[in-house]
Amino acid sequence: MGTKLVSISLIIFITTLVHFSWIASAYNVLNFGARGDGRTDSTMAFVRAWQAACNSARPEMVYVPRGTFMIKPVMFTGPCRNRIEFRNNGKIVAPDNFYAIANSGSWIMFYKVNRLSINGGTLDAKGSGFWSCRKSGRNCPPGARTSLSIMWCNDVLVRGLSSYNSQLVHIGIDHSNNVRVVDVNIRAPSSSPNTDGIHLQSSMWVTILNSVIQTGDDCVSIGPGAANIYIEKIGCGPGHGVSIGSLGNGYNEAGVQNVTVTSSVFTKTENGVRVKSWARPSGGFATKLLFKDLIMRQVNYPIIIDQRYCPWSSCPHQASGVKVSQVTYRNIKGTSATQQAVKFDCSPSNPCRGITMQDIHLTYVDRLFRPTLTYCSHAQGTHRGIVFPKSCF
Ligand SMILES: *[C@@H]1O[C@H](CO)[C@@H](O)[C@H](O)[C@H]1NC(C)=O
Asked: Which long-range contacts (CB under 8 A, 24 or more apart) does 36-41 make?
């Protein structure tokens, strides 16, 4: 009994020691002049901590302790000499005045870093001033395109992070490969304009797992040049759903291929799973898309392909050049907030091909018990199992 207790205390003691010495050897931003008072500009301290860690030949950690750290637009640049972790136990906030970040491409950017892990903490971009400016119709700055940007990076893990109130996109992934986003929590009011949750493009092997996204625009949007994308167990809503696109805005555009969205719940979102392209000529495409095991709760358009996408007034009104093919919808159940639960509005010049509908059950939230409907234009495909609303194939 006695020896057991002693050995247990010894283990605890050693573990604590190892833990503390490890944190102490980390590049703590406080040691570089950061102040966790929420007011002091800690940008340069963060940059100095990053540079020191990045220049080390050993795997290193930049450590942000508890506290609220005010940061202006910042770029953490690689390549670093070894693996690097950005560990945040605190809260990083943007300045109160939205202009401070609204003229830079992004607020916090990781650029050309390989073997990076971004762990924990909160980011609050304080976007409300910027949203009000946009809504007022005043002449506003362009806005920070992303709160957290991962650009030209490889082998990245983003884990346990909360991101609030981005001016535009919360997390942007661009020109990066092998990125895992796990256990993140993204939040902005449903009325906030164009606040996407996660936007990715020109990137391969991106996984988004186990995350909650409540925002004013797309929960996840997947742009040109994305391939091998896997999204599992996300809760989306409020927001505009998961979108492939918008595609086909440019003529010379890379396609999107091999995207899976699975085991996810959409609550009161504008769309569930959507493919959207502009109605103009383009060499773009979207192929091998798999949407399965999804629950829709009062979603306006649970299943939609919209090849006449045009959110503003000047629409191109041509046929979309984007070729949509091999799209599978399997085991999608729940309720639609509009009668048209399934809509395939495809391109007259490039009809959608190879759409598969299997085990679909979507009912209309309607006091008159009207059935849901499917709309098809220039769409070709097959159906299997029970499909309700009845498929048009
Ligand atoms: C498609 O992407 C998934 C990851 O989502 C991957 O496991 C699979 O191997 C990819 N398929 C092809 C043919 O590359």
From this structure: 36/65, 36/66, 36/67, 36/68, 36/69, 36/90, 37/67, 37/68, 38/67, 38/68, 38/69, 38/70, 38/93, 39/70, 40/70, 41/70, 41/71, 41/72, 41/95
